[in-house]
Amino acid sequence: MPKGEYLRYVALGDSQTEGLGDGDDTVGLRGFADRLAEHLAAVDPGLRYANLAVRGRVAGQVRAEQLGTALALRPDLATVVSGVNDLLRPRFDAAEVAGHMEEMFAALTAAGAQVVTLTFPDVGKIVPLARPIRSRVSDLNTRIRAAAARHGVAVAETGRATVATDPRLWSADRLHASPLGHERIAAAVAEAIHLPGSDDAWTLPLPPQRVPTGRQAAAAELRWAAAFLGPWLGRRLRGRSSGAGRTAKRPRLLPVSTTPGSPSGAQGLSSGSCRAHVPRCLIRPDPNERP
């Protein structure tokens, strides 16, 4: 299949692929995978898209729970993004996590899919309290690149782009990308697969903003720890996952213009969220909607 022509896109992963930080569970989640599907559908309206990602999943769970389903859908394009939840666990094993990723790379590429993954930015620049795990991120990124090279997997190097650590690309919890962050990730993946119309504009820095004083930064860290770190640690201590009881939001291949569970022809992929956050929304408008 020529580059840029994809008809069956399947996304595997955790909360980032599910779309946390871009919309919510009330209005619907969008995320980089939905945004990428929109870009793909702009090139070929015949595209069908499934998203198997579930928040809270570690790499081994993504492989065990999603790979078989993904293979059954026979994708010609698949994104595999996982590992962040592993990075945050006390017993992190980079080789084990990369091994799960490589198993997915191998199986999907052997089935004829173009596979894309991405690298992770320096979390210490996003969450100062996470500086101790910087070496984990670097190690995992190195292993992901090596595994990708062995299987012809494209890599969106979001881990190397300076803009990736700009706070404006991250939601308030600093664990999930913001709508703008998800837009940049989608653009990075589009460039990695040489999608027509893609380029490296996603790497461009945002306009300068005022740097907070030391006191303001410290206060912000305390607010973040109380609002997000504390509850996260509480879930870990209780052995609870944010994805407990959840299933994939889009388990079947559907046209991009169709929302799961909606009649054919309904507006698709959280279009309300799209209009709210991204002026260059690529979703085809509902012909029955009034301007």
Structure description:
The protein is of the alpha/beta class and 291 residues long. It has helices at 15-18, 31-43, 59-72, 84-87, 94-110, 123-126, 134-151, 179-192, 214-238, 271-277; strands at residues 8-13, 23-24, 28-29, 48-51, 77-81, 114-118, 154-156, 250-255. It contains ten helices and eight strands. The strands form two sheets. It has a six-stranded mixed sheet with strand order 7-6-5-1-4-8, with helices on both faces. Helix 2 packs across helix 8, helix 3 packs parallel to helix 5 and helix 5 runs parallel beside helix 7 (134-151). Mean pLDDT is 83; it is low at 262-267 and 270-291.
Descriptive labels:
291 residues; alpha/beta; six-stranded mixed sheet; two-stranded antiparallel ribbon; globular; disordered C terminus
- The level of helicity is 40-55%
Sheet/helix structural class: alpha/beta
Neighbour order of strands in the largest sheet? 7-6-5-1-4-8
Query: What overall geometry do the principal axes of the alpha carbons give?
Result: globular
Low-confidence stretches: 262-267, 270-291
- How many helices? The count is 10
Helix and strand element order: EHEEHEHEHHEHHEHHEH
The counted number of beta strands is 8
What is the oligomeric state here? Answer: single chain
Provide the residue-averaged pLDDT.
83
Largest sheet: 6 strands, mixed
CA-atom Rg in angstroms: 18 Å
**Amino- and carboxy-terminal Cα gap:** 38 Å
Strand content: 5-15%
